[in-house]
Amino acid sequence: xxxxxxxxxxxCYGVKRAVDGAKEALKQNKILYGLGEIVHNQEVIKELEExxxxxxxxxxxxxxxxxxxxxxxxxxxxxxxxxxxxELIDYTCPKVLKVHQIAEEYAxxxxxxxxxxxxxxxxxxxxxxYCGENKFVIEKxxxxxxxxxxxxxxxxxxxxxxxxxxxxxxxxxxxxxMIKNELPRNVELVIKNTICQATEIRQKETEEMAKKVxxxxxxxxKNSSNTKKLNEIAKQYxxxxxxxxxxxxLELDKIxxxxxxxxxxxxxxxxxxxxxxx
Length: 278
Ligand code: SF4
Fold this sequence. Notes:
19% strand, binds iron/sulfur cluster, single chain, 9 helices, Cobalt-precorrin-4 Transmethylase, domain 1, 3 domains, four-stranded parallel beta sheet, alpha/beta
């Protein structure tokens, strides 16, 4: 059996930076709080909990130094932490910070903002706090018309389009085309493709490899946006796609001995367990 491991497998820069940073901080602090799961990967979460990290959902639950994960946080959470005198160790990915900066700059200039992504994703909850009052989240192609209607109703003549850093690239291009075709001529349009390059490269590699193999194994957190998208893309081109979080979930009977298998893991730990996330 031929096994091919994806070149881009493993944690992306932003997640690696946050996980390594948390481990480093745990050497100096017996207890450390983590606002939200630092990575959507139960194996890593368990390891960090064993080292003394306590994961919380609200900043109000923190009782000491708190790690901010790569997804970032809404503006008001910084303020809340300051008021409660909670020290933040901020590992918001620089690429997410860039999206916040763009959103804030254009919101201040009076632009209406379309954010392509999942409404409930923590990264977007953070980004939306920088978008001002006039904004619309486009989750899928069908939402584009509703977004354009909301823009028309607002009577704003300037539109900025940005996206979640892990948004599906193909969908981004489809929605971009729809906006360009439907937008009234008197509305100024600025499109910033804020999909992270790490995401773009992974999605492209997934597509290319899925076309060439008989079975594809996607290793990552089942609630990870990135992993879900890679799984979605793989399924479009490959008949057998196995999404697993660790080696115990691997159903070997689904792989035939003469299959060409692509292993799309997102990193290894010292025990050689596959792990993924984000
Ligand atoms: S996918 Fe990109 S933007 Fe998101 S944490 Fe990783 S490096 Fe940062």
